[in-house]
């Protein structure tokens, strides 16, 4: 197809009958293509600026990517920065958080060696898949030639010679391709970009890169590397689906909106949500992914909804006759294991039909902004009943007072603080510019407390990964959020359990000058699961350090502050909430990552709000507590069946 090139040096062109070509290795072509991608940012009225689609590439080099992709990234380091990390899963988490902080409009790529480098990506890929977030994974792979098989770190399958460690990424990738010839990039890369930038398909893409193919040369058409601008489509609802949705809403007197992450990811949808709620008098509850879609103090914001929800939102959701779910996949924490919306018709606006039909919902497959504007226009002067809207406003006021009371409680002498006390201290320390904070969290009790109590003043202020609830995401996710929003103060709130699972990117944040404030709540174990274990009738066992099998030296007394200092951060252990608040002011004034450690109570949690969550309890046990818990469980299951 292409004429002979003058040399194999990158950038050398030749002219053939088919047009101008450039001779590149597959790795050079891939990097050059990524560097050429741009994205138009704006709102429903049109794009306002164009920036690089890829903010950079996280890389941990090893055999399988250092020679091919490493050299290509070096050549393009000025236009496509390469960032070094300390753990492959963590750097993928950081890349995913970067995309989340950019509301899926910008993203990053990640490259690893073969073997453990590649398999370390599986957990992060699953997280991105569950949360519908874009990340491009570029793991090194074995030799296509198979000449040196088995190479170092190669996973061999006894029945299939074509399988490698990268095949573990297939179930958790929205698109997977193994590049076995340089020409494949001509089709694989546009497909990959389509998935990464499509609202319905969005998720992790894996391009497995065999190490010999990375270094092979090919004459690529020059036009393949021309700058391309990705425009994110905002599909309008079909007239048929719109008509049915309007009919369902128009006959409702007690409607409620459940705002999910899709509201944040749709340009203009937060504006459309606010206008819809105000025009039609509809209260709004927020999922974990959707929190911040409406300011926390808006009169119609009734707070978090679901298992970790507010008493206001859950009371309304239970009594609603129609729930308009927007951009949410209606997972069990939102629906209370399918018990919360028991008396309501559910209309689900989602770009993805797979998510739109959950919970027996009437789907409206559309962009959130486009759907809200179209629904509002069709509904005209329809509103919720005056009594319903007034109840919602009253409940919202009461809930905000509950939040204030919980986060401003006076310390009790002799008692350790708990999560709500820490959340209050963090928000008070930002009194001059609270809207500048981004809080990052992922697993344990903290997401529940933050969902209820964090006051998100604008979109993006709340960054909690709770689709996969992945311990270890927190610090790496904070790094990604800071890289995406360097002008914002990023506060990572993390338990001691998650900190111990993955903390290495503290060193990366120091190296990159990406300052974080990390607050470690040390309750000496997995406090959340310890409480769940006992709620299911179990004895405290293998969760808190004191309840674990121990050797003669006993459980370790871990000095988290000393550990953080060893990674280059400022760090201190504080004795109480007053000291924490003072330390937070020092951390805000610093230009370096700070880690603040406080001992907390593993047994306490905010009692207000919440809803039933189905956790199966053993049907047979010698423990009376388990049998009692099983009886309570069976009662709840029976109630759900009765509706």
From TrEMBL:
Ranges of residues in domain Thiamine pyrophosphate enzyme TPP-binding: 443-597
GO annotation terms (biological process): inositol catabolic process; isoleucine biosynthetic process; L-valine biosynthetic process
Record keyword 4Fe-4S present: no
Residues annotated as domain Thiamine pyrophosphate enzyme N-terminal TPP-binding: 58-154
Listed GO CC annotations: acetolactate synthase complex
Annotated Gene3D superfamilies: 3.40.50.970, TPP-binding domain
GO MF terms, alphabetically ordered: acetolactate synthase activity; flavin adenine dinucleotide binding; hydrolase activity, acting on acid carbon-carbon bonds, in ketonic substances; magnesium ion binding; thiamine pyrophosphate binding
Presence of the UniProt keyword Ion transport in the record: no
Keywords, comma-separated and alphabetical: Hydrolase, Thiamine pyrophosphate
Superkingdom in the source lineage: Bacteria
Annotated Pfam families: TPP_enzyme_C, TPP_enzyme_M, TPP_enzyme_N
InterPro entries hit by this protein: DHS-like_NAD/FAD-binding_dom (IPR029035), Myo_inos_IolD (IPR030817), THDP-binding (IPR029061), Thiamin_PyroP_enz_cen_dom (IPR012000), Thiamin_PyroP_enz_TPP-bd_dom (IPR012001), TPP-bd_CS (IPR000399), TPP_enz (IPR045229), TPP_enzyme_TPP-bd (IPR011766)
Domain Thiamine pyrophosphate enzyme central: 243-375
UniProt similarity note: Belongs to the TPP enzyme family.
PANTHER family referenced in this protein's UniProt entry, alphabetically: 3D-(3,5_4)-TRIHYDROXYCYCLOHEXANE-1,2-DIONE HYDROLASE (PTHR18968:SF9), THIAMINE PYROPHOSPHATE ENZYMES (PTHR18968)
Protein name per its UniProtKB record: 3D-(3,5/4)-trihydroxycyclohexane-1,2-dione acylhydrolase (Decyclizing)
Organism whose genome encodes this protein: Trinickia symbiotica
